[in-house]
Predict the 3D structure of the following.
Amino acid sequence: MARYAAENFGFDKILFIPAYKPPHKDYDNNMCTHRLNMVKLAVSEYPEFDVSDIEYKRGGKSYTYLTILDLYKLYNIEGKINFIIGTDAFQYIESWYESDKLKELVDFIVFKRDDNFDESSFDYLRDKGYKFSFTDMKFFDISSTELRERILNNQDFSDMVTKNVEEYIKENGLYKN
């Protein structure tokens, strides 16, 4: 998705920001560190990609609104930040922390997460002031749930992650329980 966005939207950089602790999930601190390390490994071969530890350094629950505010303070950003998101998460955007303020700070680039997708089902968000565009990228059904299930069941998962991330997961015994 990130390569598609960089190529089709003309971005010089894509910034990955792994959540320290997503508000809707409970993670132990070790997993937060592993997630950050895996993202760094996954994007290491792409010069147009960077990883930020901004949420990791802040600690606690990760709220996108607070991170976006910090990004505007840290970087000389002209215009709005483009926020890449899947339809599976975007459909719940109104439940996010300070979503009414967030929508004023970013433009969303939305990737379809379903083959039978109806763009008009999101018109109500446009009517509420959310600015977004949908991509034309072909849908790939890859989920973190499936990845964890494959690992737990000792099935091959090499088609879902880069080789260095696969090795990291195995070396650290991740997702085994």
Notes: The chain has two domains: 2-140, 142-177. The domain at 2-140 is CATH 3.40.50.620 (Rossmann fold). Residues 109 and 166 are 28 Å apart (CA to CA).
